[in-house]
Records
---
Amino acid sequence: MHVGLAWLGVAVLLAAGEAAGGELFLIMLAGGALGGSAAAYLGAPVWGQALAFALVSIILVAGVRPIVRRRLLSALPEHDTNTAALTGRDGTVVEAVGAAGGLVQIAGDTWTARSLIEGETFEAGDKILVHEIEGATAIIVRGI
């Protein structure tokens, strides 16, 4: 068996390990193993193959991996979570909202609420829009 095939086998195993982990580290080492395989097929001695593996791996880990990670992470859409996800959502007044507060239903949950505009009141059934969430209270405005 040619030594280059052993390097190819190592590359395949490292790539399979990357599929399980997803940190883009093992795939870079797999690229280094391909470099070692290429060196073997070009007739380099074992130390030359190991050197090719090391150099290609270092270049990929230090140079390519950060660029690819940054590119992949920037492509992910950002989603608001928790209370930030409720900002801008519409809802319905469940219990009249006045100076003392009231209750609204937003995304299937009932929240205490108060008006953004001092003195504005809402009757049960009115449509509202969530301006922000302050603690456990929805700050609301009149909806459309």
Note: The helical segments are 3-21, 26-41, 46-75.
---
Amino acid sequence: MASTEKASPRDRLLDAAARLSYRGGVSVGIEALCREAGVSKRSMYQLFDSKDTMLAASLERSIPWYDAQLAHPDPGNATPRERILHVFERIAQASLDADYHGCPYLAVLVELKDPEHPASRVARGVKESLGARFRRDAEQGGARDPELLARQLLLVFDGASARAGAGVERLDDGLAALTATALLDAAGMR
């Protein structure tokens, strides 16, 4: 929190859920979450129906930050192509952080495998929103098939994120942006 006041138990739980699930996965136990947050299990269950709803709320709360990380700093003056390529430059920068474990929303989808889980619904919405952003930019940039290009870009984004997050690929060589550039060129995007 920005103020000197202590964060509320709800905020501490959401912060703990974000940190622990990103580092260790969504299977983190309630005991560990409560201990990390300094909140009793009883209080947790007064604030949230379940760990699942707490995880979903934590993911939901992170959406504005996540979107801001991928947004071009000057979207009004950037071309659609520049806005798309910025996303891939940002993932390359993020992957250099020692604590980078890939896209948190993709990780939730892969780990949970249950499309009806509350956290899966939030994560799927974030991925759909990124795909819609790619599609809008592809349309504005004159791509021949904006829907196909958006799907391809999302596939590259998720693949690059997963491989870098697993530590099997480095993105600092611009590979993700180069791959996206090849797709933009092939789609006739200006």
Note: The chain has a mean pLDDT of 95.
---
Amino acid sequence: MAFDWGTGRYQYITDGELHSCSHWNDLPDQIQELIEWVPEIPPGPHTQQQHDDIERLPEIFMEFLARCQR
């Protein structure tokens, strides 16, 4: 079974209200604040592709952080 990158725990504020979702694809394009961003990481041992994907997580986080509109 393939691992679904993007599953995890996410909380954000938009329109002054706290929202939660379980996949980063469900985060809206514009948010006020990103409160929680905890993507799931597949259990090891990891393939080289999984290592590459894990190493990209900080870059992906910054892309979501750029959605914040204060």
Note: Strands lie at 7-14, 17-23, 33-39.
